[in-house]
């Protein structure tokens, strides 16, 4: 049981990120002081939305320069904080060098942040943003998991440097976090493991996520003949922020929290958008045949290897979100609301025409 004093400042790494921005906004609305660790505190384009959020609330925000790969650079931001939210980590799927672009920032960044937590005497709890990717690589892994669905007990053992390196990076980073937490006794660790995060962005022009790019593909015409029926889990960014907040301030919170609202697929997501946007945008109405994807997928996109198509297309995605609902009292907003708010974000940002 870890009680956090809400009058003390709270540190957030990667504070201007897609999920972190909503978390910072929530903390400010609760009247807290946020120590926002960002790479460039002078870049108004990337942090202006956080300043505006603070101006509209009782909370206060202070910016600190920090870098995942610079040892000790989070020290100043953490001083005086009992609670650290470590959200900073790369989320990209197309990379030239997975080791330097994904593995090292994720693992060494986690190591750097937690090393600093070990040195700052005030720290009592660290909440790390992990991912369902640390639990699975392909949709088929969820079906093959014990009892046919993901739970907090499941770890990813199918990703590698050569196949789905993003999932591999999230797995290695979270394992490193638990290893370091277990080597000391002053602070406790809680991880939030979201599935694919959709929802509006507080700063879409400067901070697009891979999820928003997927929505651009759905609505931009590239998939107008049909979408691949890839099994995925989806959760709203605002609900993920709420899960972080509750994980930080619920004394009994412990372990991992699989944070996914819906078991779905890209065809269903597109169908949810059709009533409101289908007359103006070339949203797909149907699923592409798996045999066709096997034939042309690898030619169109290197990520669509035959192995990926075999393991994900027409394969359901299954996960159990009982723990986060029961222990943190989290409820999820309707999927249609999430999808419409996401699509409106990409329209307003001029990402689809």
TrEMBL record:
<keyword id="KW-0560">Oxidoreductase</keyword>
<dbReference type="InterPro" id="IPR050425">
    <property type="entry name" value="NAD(P)_dehydrat-like"/>
</dbReference>
<dbReference type="Pfam" id="PF01370">
    <property type="entry name" value="Epimerase"/>
</dbReference>
<protein>
    <submittedName>
        <fullName>Nucleoside-diphosphate-sugar epimerase</fullName>
    </submittedName>
</protein>
<feature type="domain" description="NAD-dependent epimerase/dehydratase">
    <location>
        <begin position="10"/>
        <end position="247"/>
    </location>
</feature>
<dbReference type="GO" id="GO:0016616">
    <property type="term" value="F:oxidoreductase activity, acting on the CH-OH group of donors, NAD or NADP as acceptor"/>
</dbReference>
<dbReference type="InterPro" id="IPR001509">
    <property type="entry name" value="Epimerase_deHydtase"/>
</dbReference>
<dbReference type="InterPro" id="IPR036291">
    <property type="entry name" value="NAD(P)-bd_dom_sf"/>
</dbReference>
């Amino acid at each position: 049981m870890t009680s956090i004093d809400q009058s003390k400042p709270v540190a957030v790494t990667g504070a201007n990120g897609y999920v972190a921005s909503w978390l910072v906004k929530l903390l400010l609305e609760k009247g807290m002081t946020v120590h926002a660790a960002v790479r460039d505190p002078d870049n108004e384009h990337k942090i202006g939305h956080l300043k505006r959020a603070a101006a509209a609330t009782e909370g206060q925000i202070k910016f600190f320069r920090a870098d995942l790969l610079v040892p000790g650079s989070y020290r100043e931001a953490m001083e005086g904080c009992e609670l650290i939210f470590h959200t900073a980590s790369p989320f990209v799927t197309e990379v030239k060098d997975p080791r330097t672009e994904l593995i090292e920032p994720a693992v060494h960044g986690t190591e750097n942040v937690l090393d600093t937590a070990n040195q700052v005497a005030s720290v009592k709890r660290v909440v790390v943003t992990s991912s369902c990717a640390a639990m699975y690589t392909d949709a088929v892994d969820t079906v093959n998991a014990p009892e046919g669905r993901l739970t907090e007990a499941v770890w990813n053992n199918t990703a590698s440097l050569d196949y789905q390196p993003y999932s591999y990076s999230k797995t290695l980073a979270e394992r490193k976090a638990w290893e370091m937490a277990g080597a000391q006794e002053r602070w406790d660790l809680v991880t939030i493991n979201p599935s694919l995060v959709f929802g509006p962005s507080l700063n879409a022009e400067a901070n697009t996520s891979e999820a928003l790019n997927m929505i651009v593909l759905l609505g931009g015409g590239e998939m107008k003949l049909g979408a691949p029926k890839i099994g995925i889990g989806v959760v709203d960014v605002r609900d993920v922020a709420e899960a972080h907040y509750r994980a930080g301030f619920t004394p009994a919170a412990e372990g991992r929290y699989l944070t996914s609202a819906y078991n779905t697929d890209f065809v269903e997501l597109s169908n949810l958008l059709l009533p409101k946007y289908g007359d103006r945008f070339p949203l797909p109405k149907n699923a592409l045949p798996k045999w066709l994807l096997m034939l042309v997928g690898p030619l169109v996109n290197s990520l669509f290897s035959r192995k990926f198509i075999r393991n994900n297309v027409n394969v359901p995605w299954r996960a159990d979100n009982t723990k986060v609902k029961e222990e943190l009292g989290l409820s999820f907003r309707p999927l249609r609301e999430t999808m419409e708010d996401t699509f409106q974000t990409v329209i307003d940002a001029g990402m689809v025409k």
